[in-house]
Amino acid sequence: MGAMLHLVCWMRVLPFLLFAPALLTGQSPLRPTTTSLNRTRAQLREEISGARALATTAFVAQYWRIPGNAGFNASLARVAAILDSAGYEE
Fold first, then answer.
1. CA–CA dist 28, 52 (Å, integer)
2. What is the pTM of this model?
């Protein structure tokens, strides 16, 4: 019973200990700044293309894919070529 009471006490104190610095300074250490989020979002937008994703999906969707059949192999080759052109290595 004593161990359970000890655990319950820590469960009540631990959140305060984790968030005390943020409460005392008025800053939240858990949230990235807006600037860093905007920078990350811009970098992702440069790399990710909805048009490319739709083109890949359209290519793969034209085949019935069972491992080893022609449609599966063509789809796999297409995705492998995209990854190769992006610089990925085996």
1. 37
2. 0.48
